Amino acid sequence: VIESEIPPPVSVGAPSSTPQPLAPVRPAPPVPTVSDSTPLEGSEVTTLSPAVSNAITPTSEEEQSSSATLPSPEEPSDEKEATRAMLLERQKEYKLAALKAKKQGEMEQARLYFLTSKKLDAVINALEKGQAVDLSEVPPPPGAGGSSAPSGPSLQVTQPVAEAPAPAAPSAPKDVLEALEQRRVKYMEASNQAKASGDDRKARMHDRIAKQYQSAIRAHKAGKAVNFDELPVPPGFPPIPGVKASGPEQGFIAALEAANKLASSEVGQEDDDEDKEEEPKFAVPEKPKKPALDVSAEGKPSSSASPDRTAEQEGFSPTAAQQLELLESRKKQYMKAALQAKQKKEMEQAKVFLRTAKGLDPMIEAARNGKPVDIGTLPSPPGDEEDDFILVHHCDVQLSEKAEQVYTQLANILTKQREKCLTHSEQFTHLGNVAETTKFEKMAESCKKSLEVLMLAQSRGLLPPKHHFEERSFHTVRIFPELSSTDLVIIIVKGMNLPAPSGIQPNDLDAYIKFEFPYPSAEQSQKHKTSVIKNTNSPEYNQNFTLSINRNHRGFRRVVASKGLKLELLHKGGFLRSDKPIGTALVKLDKLESQSEIREIVEVMDGRKHTGGRVEVKVRLREPLCGQDMQKSTERWLVIDSS
Which intervals carry biased composition (Basic and acidic residues) (predicted)? Predict the structure, then answer.
């Protein structure tokens, strides 16, 4: 009972001669009426009965208990509202006191205050349902009388309350999804109970927590990280499987923060405004840093990923983890290139790089969800501009001609090595080989850093850095990514010492080559011819012709295996003169089964007679018809020693 609200004792004058009535067992109404038979002005105050005085200041524990049992069915509703307002105010005082103690570092004191405020919920709910409540043990205001927090018996309700008994602990969940669903259902039930009892504030609070769990369930199903520390835990529920339980102090601090939001926002706000302002906001977890992917000599990435990345990819296969690593690395490269282009005021180029980086987001999301990703469609790394390097030449810098020559040679070798690595990386990218792609990208990055060191040393006038050559073996694959799977490219390179028809001098030969590719059928063959090269018997054409094919078609396989490509060489006739034949040549195509490009120098025949002339021809596919065109090469590799 709030002592400051108790009225002072009534002053009593001279004893009245009227006999005093005995105090009733049940307390009288709080506002006693004076009998009409005593209308005197002075005696109206002095002749109050002792029962009224005893009702204001009870003299025994029984009368205290009976007077503190509020509200009874006969009491007016305004007293019930006043009691409810007093209890709500007392609960708010304890919540604020708990927050104050928490800010001062007194965690145990804050815990006692918070538990006391939670105990008042049952009393308030019982009072709203019309049940009789024992207010004799309502705790005093926090800090009153030198007491820190009530440590006596808990508040009691004279009639059983629906929310008072502790809920039965649910069965232990088998996985994270089942645990989240159990907690969501629990908060939905609590919300329905609060709505049935008319407590809209509590119903809204439980609804928000249920929505928070619903969002966590959706995020967990999508494979995203869930911050379990932000999810309130219902009392008596077991911990989530596989999740390290937070300490009691951390969970308590989170509960205090929630209580602070509720206490500060429950006064003077509309229902819709509360729903908008108190919408649960999930903290976005920091994106784990990309770990370095070490590459062994065999080209296989080692498992030296950071703990965060390892934890994120626990459910991934090694291939999926490598794909995700490659996608995030490629996006980072394009974002960096966009930033560099923006710093150079090249806004259009920056926009292109930024769009490319954003275009990788769907592939990254699919890789995180465990879906297959076509690495063959991954864009190549952005090209580095030459003006990435700023050379500062000083007037006192002087290098000998020999040093300049060494710098030039080293720079040329490193540039070629880097271009070769990028080419191999692009080829393995189109094949979907993530390990080899990452290996050659790292080698290209190493060459770029060595080139930077070289150019920096040259700009400072230093002697060429120490370097050495190593023999490195590479497993490379030959592929032409610019071609589609339905393309067959015929390249007529040149003719050599072609025979001239009778009556034509070799220096007057105007030769051209035509051919027919019998696919899809002999009647629908694809026909092409080169341009005419005049006045030479060794013409150079270097012309490409693209044919449409179906790699798996039986007719195409038959042409490749047995028929080949037949070339006809002709001399261009003049005015009113027809073209004269020079000879024919046959290019076999059976090597396309295992090679993506074949280069043939075939002899020109006149029927079955050898003419001595030759024709150089190349034939290309995107990749071999069967398997991959793998090649092993050993090269001398330049390495700049680190000082």
Answer: 278-292
- Per DSSP bridges, beta strands 565-571 and 540-548 are unpaired
Cβ proximity of 136 and 182 under 8 Å: no
Cβ-proximal residues to 128 (8 Å cutoff; 6+ apart), any chain: 84, 197, 198, 199
Q: Which residues lie below 8 Å from residue 367, measured CB to CB, with a gap of 6+?
A: 320, 323, 324, 327, 373
Strand partners, 533: 511
Q: Give the DSSP letter of residue 560.
A: I
In 3D space, the residue among 45, 57, 41, 74 whose CA is nearest the CA of residue 1 turns out to be 57
Q: How does pLDDT run across 556-580, given as a tens digit for each residue?
A: 998 998 888 999 999 998 777 889 9
Distances (CA, A) of 248 to 108, 256, 296, 419, 469: 11, 12, 45, 58, 61
Token pair 């001399």: residue: 571
Sheet bearing 597-606, strands edge to edge: 526-529, 511-517, 565-571, 580-587, 597-606, 609-621, 487-496, 540-548
CB 517 within 8 A of CB 601: no
Per the CB < 8 A criterion, the answer to whether 102 and 256 are in contact is yes
Distances (CA, A) of 402 to 258, 278, 416, 464, 465: 74, 74, 21, 10, 14
For residues 151 and 134, what is the distance between their CA atoms, to the nearest angstrom? 17
What does DSSP assign to residue 604? E
Identify the residue whose tokens are 């609590």: 190
Question: Coil, strand, or helix at residue 307?
Answer: helix
DSSP state of 533: B
Length reported for the chain: 643
**Cα–Cα distance, 122 to 115 (Å, whole number):** 12
One-letter amino acid identity for 302? S
The residue among 343, 345, 423, 412 whose CA lies nearest residue 383 is 423
Count other Cβ atoms within 10 Å, centred on residue 406.
18
Rounded to 5 degrees, φ, ψ at 77 are: -70, -25
Task: Answer yes or no: are the C-beta atoms of 228 and 243 closer than 8 Å.
Answer: yes
- The letter for the amino acid at 265 is S
| The model's pTM | 0.39
Vertex 126 angle, CA 124 and 131, to 5°: 135
Question: How far, in Å, CA of 276 to CA of 17, rounded?
Answer: 69
Supply the pLDDT for residue 396.
41
Confidence of residue 144 (pLDDT cuts 50, 70, 90): low
Tokens describing residue 600: 């043939």
pLDDT confidence of residue 489: 95
Distance CA 508, CA 598 (A): 32
Report d(CA 513, CA 579) in Å as an integer.
Answer: 12
